[in-house]
Write a structure and sequence with these properties.
Elements lengths: L5 E6 L2 E6 L10 H16 L10 E6 L4 E3 L4 H5 L3 H20 L4 E5 L2 E3 L1 H8 L2 E5 L3 E3 L13 H9 L1 H10 L3 E2 H6 L5 E3 L2 H16 L3 H13 L5 H16 L2 H11 L10
Parallel strand pairs: 2-3, 3-5, 4-6, 5-7, 6-8, 7-10
Antiparallel strand pairs: 1-2, 8-9
Helix pairs in contact: 1-3, 3-4, 3-10, 4-5, 5-6
The protein binds acetoacetyl-coenzyme A (CAA).
Length: 266
């Protein structure tokens, strides 16, 4: 398959996937999410750009400014609640594909990782970041809630108190703070250095038993209090509720019209 929004490179069974919509700060449109699904189908069937099964993956964003600045807000402006629910379902599905991949996936966060971007990074096995990286779940600014797995995974990364503070306030945090709360594993002075170190780490992991590593991944990911499926289902129900609200209509429209939102709480 020919990819329009993802750049895929493979080298010695390590794959680098770059989200390639820099003018939209690599926002996750339905097209991007659809290409992720297609990529994992090709990985499963060992077709397309993939060939042999990868033994590791680096996920990053094109350019220096953004990893991913969120789900595509302009696309959401036109969506009905039902379309919003299925959009959240698609985003959640991509997160599960990353989480269930039988090889390690490192998120290399260059710049903004907001909303769906932070959620995508958290679906990877661990996160590296540049000094200029910015993380956040700003959905409440739009009258929305995190809907690509953010409520479920931020809680698991940083615990309930920190997750709630970040999600309720929509506050962005810099790489240093993300490191201090355990969201990020390591911070690097440049994108090039970060990718180089992620690659070195994956090269090291590649020397271990791929089966042992994949079983560790599967087992660690299954050790959550409640099943991820159930938790994601509840998150999607919440996303449907906000998607049908006046506050979502106002918040998303205000972003597109480049003005502050005025919320009414309904
Ligand atoms: N969706 C669609 N387009 C986006 C976008 C997004 N999430 N984020 C940025 N863009 C677009 C902007 O609209 C702009 O395009 P135009 O020039 O055509 O208007 C372009 O990318 C550059 O953005 P800015 O001019 O805004 O750049 P900036 O440097 O002034 O600000 C920013 C950068 C702070 C990241 C700002 O773009 C921003 O706040 N983006 C939105 C972040 C956000 O709210 N993300 C959450 C989305 S909701 C979500 O993800 C829901 C979910 O969980 C499923």
């Amino acid at each position: 398959m020919k990819y329009e929004t993802l750049k895929i490179e493979t080298d010695d069974r390590l794959m680098t996937v770059t989200i390639d919509r820099p003018r939209q700060l690599n926002a996750l449109s339905e097209a991007v999410l659809g290409e992720f699904k297609a990529l994992f189908e090709e990985i499963d069937s060992k077709e397309g750009p993939v060939g042999e099964s990868p033994l590791g993956m680096i996920l990053t964003g094109e350019g220096e400014k953004a990893f991913v600045a969120g789900a595509d807000i302009k696309g959401m402006n036109e969506m009905t609640p039902e379309e919003g629910e299925s959009f959240a379902g698609l985003g959640q599905e991509v997160g599960r594909l990353l989480e269930r991949a039988p090889f390690p996936v490192v998120a290399c966060v260059n710049g903004y990782a907001l909303g769906g971007g932070c959620e995508l990074a958290m679906a990877c096995d661990f996160i590296y970041a540049t000094e200029g990286a910015v993380f956040g779940q700003p959905e409440v600014n739009l009258g929305l809630i995190p809907g690509f797995g953010g409520l479920v995974r931020l809680l698991r990364y940083v615990g309930p108190g920190r997750a709630k503070e970040l999600i309720y306030s929509g506050r962005n945090i810099k790489a240093e703070e993300a490191l201090s709360i355990g969201l990020v594993n390591k911070v690097f002075p440049s994108k090039a250095r970060m990718i180089e170190e992620a690659r070195k780490m994956l090269e090291l992991i590649k020397t271990k038993s791929p089966l042992a590593v994949s079983i560790c991944k599967e087992t660690i990911n299954s050790m959550y209090g409640q099943s991820v499926e159930k938790a994601l289902e509840r998150e999607k129900e919440g996303f449907l509720r906000v998607f049908a609200s006046d506050d979502k209509r106002e918040g998303v429209r205000a972003f597109v019209e480049k003005r502050p939102a005025v919320f009414k709480g309904r």
